[in-house]
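Lay summary. Proteins are chains of building blocks that fold into shapes, and those shapes determine what they do. In this project we predict the shape from the chain. Here is one chain we studied, written as its sequence of building blocks.
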Amino acid sequence: MSSNVQVFALSIEPAQLSKSELTGIRVAIAIGGICALVLGVLVLVWPESTLTLVAILLGLYFLISGAIRVVRGVFTAGATAGSRVLNIALGLLMVILGILAIKNPVDTLVALGLIIGISWIVEGVAALAETARDSSRWLGTLFAIVSLLAGIVVLLLPLESLAVLTILTGLFLIATGILQLVQAFMLGRAVKS
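And here is the predicted shape, written in a compact code that computers can read:
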């Protein structure tokens, strides 16, 4: 094997690509950028619809996963009786949650916001408990405080917090879309010079 061949190299070397390969990569990056840009604009234009869609998709996930668990519990003959009963019970619970999420997307979003808030509070408490006693202590403490405050805000205003997170997601998608379009335009330009 030659010394200049890299088997596990992950970077793209435009000079080593054919013109059609380079064009294909540029088009793929541009398509990804356009998709991110369009999705970001849609999220910003219709944040409520975006949140509702998320709740409905979460409901569909619960519905499908629950049905699969029920089927597993009924038809897995080699499993123990306890495992089968647990799969059926959990599956039925997930199906019910899925139906409720699809019928009541706003309530689903509030529940999702509460879960996020509680998890951030738990993470903040854990970060305080795990803070090292060295020069990184202030960073760990700062992270814990931010996590605790964010969790409390989300608990107090779950739906509003998710709306803000949706807007931030839209802005992030627009920014990454623009960056991908610039990357697609710039990729391989130095090779031509």
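What the prediction tells us: Residues 19-192 form one domain.
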